[in-house]
Design a protein that fits this description.
The chain is built from 18 helices and no strands. By secondary structure, the chain is mostly helical. Among the domains are: 5-79; 86-194, no CATH class. Residues 343-375 are annotated as: Disordered.
Length: 375
Amino acid sequence: MEATPLLRVRQELGLTKQQAIRKLKRSAEELGQPLFVTDESINRQMRYWEQGSRIVPEQYHAPFCAAYGRSPAELGFTPIDSQEFDETSSDLNERLQFTEVDSSLVELFENQTQNFRLLDRRLGAERLFEQTSSHVQQIEEMLKYAVPGDAREMLAAALAEASALSGWQALDMRNARDAWQMHEIAKTGARESENPSILAHVTAQQGYVLLDAERPSEALTLVQRARSKDQDKIHPRMRSWLAAAEGEMRAAAGDVSGTYKALDEADRLLPNEPGDSDPELPFLALNSTHLARWRGHCLARLGAAEAVNDLNSALSGLAGGDFRRAEAGARVDLAMALKARGEEEEARKHAKRADELAGNTGSARQRARIQKLQN
């Protein structure tokens, strides 16, 4: 079998696979595009890339070119010549006509995503992930053949929102691989949509995959990267959400002063309008109750006694509502904070209720937290 350009160039440079991986990651850092994956993961993927059995994702193109000192064409990254497609021009035209999109079609997709979002809050990820991931695949396929224009950008935004939801569900199921991949799809859609708020959201949310993998410093870097771009173009409620997310990453890293600073900023940035969402941000639910829950979660991580007050305040607004997974998380946090204060009996009550809610929603993520708390 003929060697692929990627393998041939590595061999010409006399690099072992491990040396190539180190150069690749260093080049990605220098380009400001750090690769938040392990050497083992890249090593596994490189076997497929060098065999030609899988396409090298676009995010690796520039780092590979810099590491190997070759152009995209020399590494085999150029698009396949149009003459090599099996489809004739007329076949492709027919398909383009078949997948032509307009604002009404995009609205249908967005409504479907919103329905999944509402169901997810009540039923949980386990019962919906297969449907939402199929929904993402359908939008992604439509986008591949959609003609350029405003409708395509709207469809790209719809893809970002749907895949971010699916990615969050995968994370709740403790499926890190699918969670990361769904967020990669979300970022691709967000970039094409040219919507800074959506791009910031899906980029920062991907940090939670790293956080759950106990890599808080890298998670913080990802959130800070999301916050560093186009701040003046990002919706105020989203800016508040991003600040709170940074607070959580800092709490996980043990940065006490940084946590308080970020959480105070989130509170200042939160709009005063009633409700927990904006029409421009249908994927984001954030109000004073959610922010109190978030603050309580961060302070519980730090072992701060005041976490109990914030969490009790949040639970008064969450209990019995649709945000059952959020309520489960708040009760785990409250149990943790109460246990730290020596209130074992009250802590057990909240842990038991959290376990019931996690069972109802199938939240493997919350169940793992409960198990850790009980050990």
